[in-house]
Write a structure and sequence with these properties.
Elements lengths: L2 E2 L13 E3 L4 E2 L2 E3 L11 E3 L6 E3 L13 E3 L20 E3 L6 E3 L14 E3 L4 E4 L2 E2 L6 E3 L11 E2 L6 E3 L6 E3 L12 E3 L4 E3 L5 H4 L5 E3 L6 E3 L12 E3 L4 E5 L12 E3 L4 E4 L13 E3 L4 E4 L15 E3 L4 E5 L2 H5 L26 E5 L2 E5 L8 E3 L4 E4 L13 E3 L4 E2 L15 E3 L6 E2 L13 E3 L4 E5 L19 E3 L9 H4 L4 H14 L4 H9 L1 H13 L4 H24 L5
Parallel strand pairs: 1-3, 2-5, 4-6, 5-7, 7-8, 8-10, 9-11, 10-13, 12-14, 13-15, 15-17, 16-18, 17-19, 19-21, 20-22, 21-23, 22-24, 23-25, 24-26, 25-27, 26-28, 27-31, 28-32, 31-33, 32-34, 33-35, 35-37, 36-38, 38-39
Antiparallel strand pairs: 29-30
Helix pairs in contact: 5-6, 6-7
Length: about 575
């Protein structure tokens, strides 16, 4: 919490070797000339202050023993020229500043044989001709304005390469393949074209391959090596086509697979269910089709937390077997202290996902986040009851399908649910009252179905508007203007309706005749009941009906006498 200025007397400490003042509240202008006498300085760190570092490149002073320089978030607008003599520099961090234009030509000579860590991210750099350092381990060029093809790489020891959110063009350079120690490659959000270099899937070292949001085409290389360490493969938002390579099964360490928004075809990759560590599977907006076949794995997708297969051409019934074994979606991590995220020290997993009706870029994915999205397909049949056991679900989207049957009352068990979208289906029956007890439900979409009865009231249901129920002509109650009469408020439950349907199908007689008798007269109703019953029925049934008609007639006469009427 240090505030104010750095005392000028610091310049007298000629034997000073380490100066760390990062992450304070220093808020004055600092002239680096103050440090010109510190010839023994090895490490200088002024990062993350409100400080404005003044760099006067007309002054010539040197810091000959400087090995580490950290000036992140110091509002500098150019490269410090005293770096020209830092021939033994190991780490250089000038990120989150206002440096514009092209990197100076002399920068390549800085620590030519020693530079290990280089972070120039979050600036306004437009061009870097070369990355000439031979022993470079970490390069971060994210969030700049780089426009040319990717700069030439000379380092064979590179392990981490970040260049996302630029305007880089051309093909991904094959020289990247020479970096045999590469663990993380993030070239996302650029304008790269051409095909994915095959060498990237041959690697037994690469852990993260993030090439999303480019213009890559062709097929995904079909030769993922056995024993690879790929943990995250994100190819979302390209123009990739063809089927998924079966060699993806070799990625036994895979946690995240995002192939959304491409032109990939084929049937559902059920064989991915054998990858025990898979947390995220996104194949939305492709050309997958057909029924979702059963996995040969005994317990498929046991650790899956995010499943998005929306906007494809899948059909047939919803896959009950898969829902049955989504064990990670059945766990509620109530004992988890503090927020935890997917990813590792250098690379934070991120994802573009549908949340409460809108696509949102999650810069970091919480480990407690669970969602299923099967929307915009052609699924048929009923919603499996087993989904009610996926207790940790945050979001569920089955909209824009051809689902029939009832909304399962078991959905009342989804106490962590925040959004539920079942719109644009053919669901019937009542809205289960159990849904009113979901404490976190914020978005509910049931429009364009065949639902009937009174809308549940209280708690979260008092916050939903008409849009949640549009085009369900049988619904009534708040927030709709249509009120419920006694008949509508006492709709039979799905089980009762089913029992009555079964009874009528067995006996061939329902309440139609009785209702007609009340509406059109006792004689006509009795006659209709007799005609409906007489044909092809045993005599004892005919006698039973006559007896019921007799009892009904006597009750009507008694009612008439009590009301002062005649026969």
């Amino acid at each position: 919490m240090l505030q104010g200025s750095i005392p000028s007397t610091i310049s007298r400490l000629v034997n000073l070797t380490y100066l760390y003042l990062s992450s304070n509240n220093l808020s004055i202008m600092l002239d680096l000339e103050l440090l010109s006498n510190l010839n023994n300085l090895n490490v200088l760190d002024f990062s993350y202050n409100n400080i404005l570092v003044s760099i006067n490149n007309n002054l010539t002073f040197t810091l000959p023993n400087l090995e580490e320089l950290y000036l992140s978030s110091c509002n500098i607008s150019e490269f410090p020229i005293f770096l020209r003599t830092a021939t033994n520099l190991l780490n250089l961090d000038l990120s989150n500043n206002r440096i514009h234009g092209q990197t100076p030509k002399w920068l390549g000579a800085v620590g030519r044989n020693s530079l290990y860590f280089l972070d120039l991210s979050h600036n306004f750099l437009t061009s870097i001709d070369k990355i000439p350092w031979k022993n470079l381990n970490f390069v971060d060029l994210r969030n700049n304005l780089l426009q040319r093809p990717f700069p030439t790489l000379n380092s064979l020891n590179l392990r981490y390469l970040f260049a996302s959110n630029n305007n880089l063009i051309g093909e991904i350079p094959s020289l990247i393949c020479n970096a045999s120690s590469l663990e993380v490659l993030d070239l996302s959000h650029n304008n790269f074209s051409g095909m994915i270099p095959k060498c990237l899937v041959h690697s037994n070292v690469l852990s993260v391959l993030d090439l999303r949001m480019n213009s890559l085409n062709g097929t995904i290389p079909a030769t993922f090596s056995k024993g690879n360490y790929l943990r995250n493969i994100n190819l979302n938002g390209n123009q990739l086509e063809g089927p998924l390579p079966r060699s993806l099964e070799n990625c036994t360490n895979l946690e995240i697979l995002d192939l959304g928004n491409n032109k990939i075809n084929g049937t559902f990759p059920y064989w991915l269910g054998s990858i025990q560590k898979l947390h995220v599977l996104v194949i939305r907006s492709n050309q997958f089709h057909g029924h979702i076949g059963n996995s040969k794995a005994k317990f498929p997708f046991p650790n899956l937390r995010i499943l998005d297969i929306s906007n494809n051409e899948f059909n047939g019934p919803l896959p009950i077997k898969y829902f049955k074994y989504l064990k990670a979606m059945m766990k509620v991590d109530e004992g988890e202290v503090g927020l935890k995220y997917m990813g590792d020290y250098y690379y934070h997993d991120s994802l573009n996902v549908m949340i409460k009706g809108s696509y949102i870029e999650m810069e970091r994915i919480q480990t407690i986040f669970r969602t299923i999205d099967f929307s915009n397909n052609s699924f048929i049949g009923e919603i499996p009851l087993i989904i009610g056991s996926l207790y940790s679900l945050k979001g569920l989207n089955f909209s824009h399908n051809n689902l029939t049957g009832y909304i399962p009352s078991s959905f009342g068990n989804l106490t962590n649910l925040e959004w539920l979208d079942l719109s644009f289906n053919k669901l019937r029956g009542e809205i289960p009252k159990q849904l009113a007890d979901l404490p976190w439900l914020e978005v509910l979409k049931l429009s364009h179905n065949q639902l009937i009865g009174q809308i549940p009231s209280g708690k979260q249901f008092n916050t939903f508007n008409n849009d949640s129920y549009t085009d369900n002509l049988g619904l009534c109650g708040f927030p709709l203007t249509r009120t419920c009469n006694n008949h509508e408020t006492k709709q039979p439950t799905p089980s009762t309706l089913q029992q009555e349907d079964n009874l009528e199908s067995k006996n061939g007689f329902g309440w139609q005749a009785v209702l007609i008798g009340y509406g059109c007269g006792l004689i006509f109703g009795t006659l209709m009941g007799y005609v409906m019953f007489k044909i092809g029925k045993p005599k004892w049934i005919v006698r039973m009906v006559k007896l019921e008609q007799h009892i009904l007639l006597r009750r009507l006469k008694n009612n008439a006498r009590r009301n002062g009427g005649g026969n």
